[in-house]
Amino acid sequence: MDASPQPPPLGRSAFLLLIVVLGGVCTIGPFSTDLYLPALPSIAAELQAGSRSIQLTVTVFLAGLGIGQLFAGPLSDTFGRRRPLLAGLAIYTVASLLCALAPSAGFLIAARSLQGLAGAAGVAISMAVVTDHFRGGRAAHFLSRLALISGMAPIVAPIVGAQLLRLTSWRGVYYVLTGIGVVLVLGVALGLRESLPAERRTARGLTVAARTMGRLSRDGHFMGFTVTSALTYAVFFAYLSTSSFVLQDIYGASPTVFSLLFAANAVGMLLAAQLNGFLLARFSPRALLGASLVSLLAAGVALVAVTAIGGLGIAAVAVPFFVLVASMGVATPNVTALALSLHPDVAGSASAYFGTLRLALGAAATPLATIGGGVSDVPMALLMAGAAAGALAVFAATSRRPAPIPEPVLSTAEAEGELPVA
Question: Where in the chain are the domains?
Fold first, then answer.
């Protein structure tokens, strides 16, 4: 059983409402990147900037999404989940409007930084809310079901983005993001109940939060899962930031073809996440995480081989991309649940530290894919395979240590959604 008592069960209606609201909030990251990925070449052309500068708009957003969690998580431990979340979503909405009005690449980069910092509240606090309600395998199950909503964003976003480019400029994409921000503010205001009662809150200043994160840093299991997740995110972010240029500029895909390939990969990730939810009835989160990391590494090695040989066509690249992204659908919910279930007493701070480290490493690794002066398929593939190998190595080293708590395997009824999971 988990180290801390399981929270009381949620009723079915409350369970479903929580999935809808948190699923919507979790779309901040995918929509803020995937929606405008097909527009990257056109943004570079209009703002007269190089591909590396425009690629930086992805990097700074992801960096802001990580750094902002260091503040959003501890604030939610002090003031509850709702108020910091609403404030972050409101600022995100304003930042999205500023992106739409950007007169230069530098202004766009700055606005994207603010957008990421504010959007971090959605990432950190939504995971803290999950930890308020669920633990261990049950948290992994909920996160897999959450992908039914949040997983639609990477499927819909690139297709919508490509079609928006047929009707308007890239600025219209950011006006759409502004509208999404408004919808999220209303959804949280009307549909999310406070999950951290006043008696469980702690007056944690930044100094106390720093000490808490220091304590987390000394937890070998927490850091093992965190670094494992960070390295898988490095793989995924390399895909996010380079696939548009690689598939369109090197392999000749049109924006529409790229968006369809991107959406197909997202469907694979969504289906894998749902399969993970069912497999939790038979296997522990740790076992499923290990299998997904092996799959991730195999896809990375295949991608290195394909790009090194060259001239094999877009299909030869598309297949490893699909396996890579689908593997993330199993790896992400399991590693997140395993890490955050270790410290439910400081869920906000733990979620913030976990999210910051994995996003920061992913953002820092992304520029390595442009070694040589521009986006190329071989450096991209080498980065993906290397990060996947590192993730598997760290996980293997962590798994050899005695686990502090055994992870409960869900009953078949829970895994298939026949019972509310708590």
Answer: 19-193+216-403
